[in-house]
Amino acid sequence: AYGQSMAQQKSDASQVAFAQSQFDRAADLAQKGINAKSSLDEAKNDLDKAKQQLAVAEQGIISAKAGLGGNPDIETDKHPTVMAALAARDKAAYDLAQTTVKAPADGIVSQASSFKVGQYVGSGTPLFSLVETGDTWIDANFKETQLTHMKPGQKAEIVVDTYPGRTFEATVKAIGAGTGAEFSLLPAQNATGNWVKVTQRIPVRLELIDADAKMALRTGMSATVTVDTGVARGLPSIFGHATAGEAAQ
Predict the structure, then answer these.
(1) Which of 43, 64, 122, 206 qualifies as a cystine partner to 23, CB 3.0-4.6 A?
(2) Torsion sign (Cα): 100, 102, 108, 109
(3) pLDDT tens-digit profile of 37-96?
(4) What is the pTM of this model?
(5) For residues 44 and 22, what is the distance between their CA atoms, to the nearest angstrom?
(6) What CATH code is assigned to 129-186+197-248?
(7) In the chain, where are the structural domains located?
(8) What integer pLDDT is reported at residue 194 of this predicted model?
């Protein structure tokens, strides 16, 4: 568009120059009484039309230059129209990618009988659970009095009720930030002055070391966990009831 406007401006400028020369010649002849006044008026009209066309062409150059961001030598990739087209293409590609739902990890789909193929569902509606097969852990609920010397990295042994004759090795990965009662739906309140102390339990997450255990354990299994804190406290180890868990989405 900018190149066409420049070419049109040059053509119109030539027309103005030609019309100007024609007008000057007609004016000179009219002054000498050789040419009629009507010829002078016609030449004047042609000159005015040529100047108007030149003005339109120059305005077209300004508009075309503005469309190039004020830089006629702008690179193609930086052209506003090209950039807008690329942005539209990227958005279309993103929208297309969003039409495919991918699981964040490998696993087993559970509770998938609540929906059917072709069924419309609203945003945020849970359809099924995904139980990861590559990330297995044990959540053990220890008494708060048993956590005095417990810390991440300590060795642990796990006996699952399903496999009573087998011991799985694990390490303490993390200790919960609060008791289970504190994060329950209705936390217990002691505002009435009830001073009877109830020993609370705090969840401790253990990471399995035995790779075979990840294949044998299932979500919700019960287990007994023994953590070696290195400190004798009546018994050489600390015991806690635990539940095997796997990541669920």
Answers:
(1) 43
(2) negative
(3) 778 788 888 888 888 888 888 887 777 776 666 566 667 677 777 888 889 999 999 999
(4) 0.49
(5) 9
(6) 2.40.30.170
(7) 2-67, 129-186+197-248
(8) 61
